[in-house]
UniProtKB/TrEMBL annotation:
It is found in: Membrane. One of its GO terms (cellular component) is membrane. This is LARG2 glucuronyltransferase. Keywords: Glycoprotein, Glycosyltransferase, Membrane, Metal-binding, Signal-anchor, Transferase, Transmembrane, Transmembrane helix. Transmembrane segments: none annotated. The keyword DNA damage does not apply. InterPro entries: Xyl/GlcA_transferase. It holds the Pfam family Glyco_transf_49. The keyword Membrane applies. It comes from Eolophus roseicapilla. One of its GO terms (molecular function) is xylosyltransferase activity.
């Protein structure tokens, strides 16, 4: 598949095996159940301009992907570095030996957010791939997101786990981890 070959070449050119980097694949979504997948970035941009695609979660949770900087991505021809921001949860390509997902965050909420935070704490570069993209297709809400929305208990548990995670980051990374807690409190 040409896309797979392109990504493999990107990874080799960026010397990912020797480098601590998380390659961000910009995410888009459609509200249509049937979609002809764009064959190129130019085709995707055209679909975006026509309104058949949107940047991912743009109308629900823009903070999750805003640091990707879609305006910059439109014209980017080389990978570019972005900074961590609160609630950033991009889809990434990383080496196998990167930190694993924190298993406390099962179900809905904070699995990708905590993972990116940990990568940032370990000084991974967050690099947006200029010619990569993924498209999220509509589907029925998951059982866990329904529980999250309907249950104050579920949301309370998630908050407790987030606090534990922050404490663990502080223990592991010391003063460097303070920015995550400070950012969280200022929201």
């Amino acid at each position: 598949h040409p896309s797979y070959c392109h990504h493999r070449n990107s990874i080799q050119q960026l010397e990912l095996p020797q480098r601590k980097a998380a390659l961000i694949v910009p995410a888009f979504e459609t509200l249509h159940y049937r979609l002809t997948f764009p064959k190129s970035k130019a085709e995707l941009l055209s679909m975006l301009d026509m309104g058949s695609l949107y940047t991912f979660r743009y109308h629900v949770w823009p903070k999750g992907h805003a640091p990707t900087d879609y305006a910059k991505w439109r014209t980017a021809t080389v990978p570019y570095r972005v900074a961590w921001q609160p609630d950033f949860e991009p889809y990434v390509v990383v080496r196998r030996d990167c930190p694993k997902y924190d298993q406390r965050f099962v179900g809905f909420g904070w699995n990708k957010v905590s993972h990116i935070m940990e990568l940032d704490a370990q000084e991974y570069e967050l690099l947006v791939l200029p010619n990569a993209f993924m498209i999220h297709m509509p589907h029925a809400p998951s059982f866990d997101i329904s529980k999250f929305r309907l249950s104050a208990g579920y949301r309370g548990c998630l908050q407790t786990l987030r606090e534990e995670f922050h404490q663990d980051l502080s223990r592991r990374y010391g003063a460097a981890a303070l920015k995550y807690l400070t950012a969280e409190r200022s929201l």
